[in-house]
Amino acid sequence: MRHACSAAHGRSFRTSPRVLLPSSPKTPPRNFKLHCSTTSSSRTPSEAAMAMAASSALQPELCLLPHAGPRRRMLPPRAPHLLVLPHRRRGAVRRFSSRDGGGGGGGGPAGAVEKRSVVPEVAAERKGGGDAHAEEFEEEAVDGALELRWPPWEGLPERYRLIGATSLAFVICNMDKVNLSVAIIPMSHQYGWSSSTAGLVQSSFFWGYALSQLPGGWLAKLIGGRTVLKAGVLVWSLATAVIPVVAGFMPGLVLSRILVGIGEGVSPSAATDLIARTIPLQERSRAVSVVFGGLAFGSVLGLLFAPPIIQNLGWESVFYIFGLLGIIWCLVFESVQELQPGDNEDILNLENSSAGSNGHVSSSVPSKSSASSLEEMTDSLKDVPWGEFFKSKAVWAMIYTHFCGSWGHYTCLSWLPTFFSEELNLNLTDAAWVSILPPLGSMVITSIAAPFADNLISSGVDTTKVRKICQAIAFLSPAAFMMLSSVDLGLPPWVVVAFLTGGISLSNFALSGLYCTHQDISREYASILLGITNTVGAVPGIVGVALVGYLVDTTHSWSMSLFAPSIFFYLTGTAVWLTFASSEPQDFNKLASESLAESNQ
Predict the structure, then answer these.
(1) Does residue 20 contact residue 29 with C-beta atoms inside 8 Å?
(2) Which residues form the Major facilitator superfamily (MFS) profile domain (predicted)?
(3) How far apart are CA 195 and CA 418, in angstroms?
(4) Sign, CA torsion 523/527/530/536
(5) Which of 96, 232, 98 has its CA nearest to residue 177?
(6) Which end of the chain is more exposed for a tag (fewer CB within 10 A), N or C?
(7) DSSP letter string over 169-197?
């Protein structure tokens, strides 16, 4: 029978273990016919008879077709012009036209039947592997899919990798910032410090923090945020590690904390410049939240691990361990760069600023090495339109709002563990554990606020309006909860903790408000603008933290010392922000040129 049909076709049949026909899952099609290359109109009676006989003979010879599912089809084992199939696998299927199969012209049998194939497995079966080879192929594919990728950031876009590394640096940043707020309790007992002295020690960090803001922003623009960030992490980590050595000598202790502040002070400007130059407007709130959200996570880790480390290894060990983490980060950060030699290096760097319609920076910054001459650095400093910055009402609104937010944040960050210990009568471990709650809540709020702001902007809401809404939430919420906590209502301690946690957590809406406005106004000068506002914002760390300690010693009232000043600044900051804030882009270079032209006339 096979030879008869082969003669009708003028070619021999191929043996085929499985075929796929357009039939029901259970039974072969009733109208199945064996198609031959010769059309019915051109057949002789004898050829037509042989074809009908072959078709009838094939009907009872049925075999099972393994199928991707619980059902199996009963199909003929051999048929002309039908494509051979192995086990059918999802995801590797293609449809053939009549030109793929050799079935003759368009209307021929190959065009009438849908044919699917997994090409590599067909070749494997033709080599004699059969079902066993196909199963081996599938197992290898599964093993490849389950193979872990290392390092885990392999394949991510460069800007995401560096944003993640920057966020990790900010985690370590706040770990080194809050470790003293926990260690200050046993240190005060050991050295006999009063609250005023402890406040002086804690506020010394902010002296260096304030001094480094403008230089940090300028250097980030000049030599690149990556270089400035690495230098800052190294400085603050080494200064943290030497604190136990100089703790008994007050000038040395103050100087070490000033160096920690200098190292951490350059980091926000460097990070802001990276975000401004690489992240489009629609993603900016999330990028800022990821980077600066590392601060809240660092506070959690610092307050979580510092107490057991201090109780088991002594207060000195917490500075050694946390300082070592920063040094390790510097080494790993270098390794991450070296692992990606084929990528577009320094995509986040200031030297490679890009222009385009994706919202990235539109200005070009020339490449500068760290060996830039003093003359070039001086010229670069003169090129900054300082005067135009301070003529802008929006910039002044940012300055005062940053001051107000920093007062509440820094005073609470420095004094809450002591407040919980003395006012709520919690021991060191419990006070530190309770102090973790506000940063934990901040992490949750950050994950909500950032998409909230970005979605509003993407849906067409004015950017200025979005920034005002977020900043108003960030200020009015903690003000309200601090009022409830400061009034003597006879509330149990856990209610006071819940109020403070909720208020401080909601203040993180500022990451989608104030902290995005620097990039909104000027991507080119975002780092310098943040340096300006952060310099003023560091003053509460110097004055406010020390003032709280002095007021506690004189008034013995936490409500008057800690909460009342913060409430005042939150309310006045809200009024100024809603009145004068703006996210409209400003071309400060153009404004400076116009001012110069007017003065020359």
Answers:
(1) no
(2) 162-584
(3) 10
(4) negative
(5) 232
(6) C
(7) HHHHHHHHHHHHHHHHHHHHHHHT--HHH
| Angstrom distances, CA of residue 436 to CA of 319, 441, 497 | 19, 9, 11
For residue 378, give the nearest of 548, 205, 172, 222 by alpha carbon: 222
Distance, CA of 422 to chain centre:
38
Cα–Cα distance for residue pair 226/228, rounded to 1 Å: 6
CB atoms within 10 A of CB 493: 13
| Residue pointed to by tokens 């067409």 | 460
Tell me how far CA of residue 554 lies from CA of 407, 501, 548, in angstroms: 20, 27, 10
Return d(Cα 568, Cα 478) in angstroms, integer. 11
Q: Residue 523 is which amino acid?
A: R
**H-run or E-run covering 65:** strand 63-65
CB neighbours of residue 409 within 10 Å? 21
Q: How many other C-beta atoms lie within 10 A of the C-beta of residue 534?
A: 27
> Which tokens go with 489?
């209502």
- What are the Cα distances from residue 511, in Å, to 364, 460, 466? 27, 20, 12
The burial of 236, by beta-carbon neighbours within 10 Å (0-12 exposed, 13-18 middle, 19 or more buried), is given as: buried
Find residue 471's DSSP bridge partners: none
pLDDT given for residue 7 in this prediction? 45
Q: Which of 101, 388, 157, 462 is nearest to 279 (CA)?
A: 157
Three-state SS sequence of 95-158: CCCHHHHCCCCCCCHHHHCCCCCCHHHHHHHHCCCHHHHHHHHHHHHHHHHHCCCCCCCCCCCH
What pLDDT score was predicted for residue 253? 94
Q: How many residues does the chain have?
A: 601
* pLDDT given for residue 45 in this prediction: 53
Amino acid at 147: E
Q: Which residues contact 333 (CB under 8 A, 6 or more apart)?
A: 165, 169, 230, 233
Spatial distance between the Cα atoms of 137 and 567, rounded to a whole number of angstroms: 68
Tell me which residues of the chain have a pLDDT lower than 50.
Answer: 1-42, 54, 56-76, 78-130, 133-134, 137, 142, 145-146, 338-372
Tokens read off for 134: 């196909």
Return all residues near 101 (Cβ < 8 A) that are at least 6 apart.
81, 83, 110, 115
Alpha carbon separation from 80 to 109, 114, 118, 250 (Å, rounded): 9, 14, 20, 95
Distance CA 213, CA 222 (A): 14
The residues near 140 (Cβ < 8 Å, ≥ 6 apart) are none
Joined tokens for residue 284: 């900016």
Q: pLDDT, tens digit, for every residue of 72-113?
A: 444 445 444 444 444 444 444 444 444 444 444 444 444 434
Give the whole-angstrom CA distance, residue 375 versus residue 385: 18
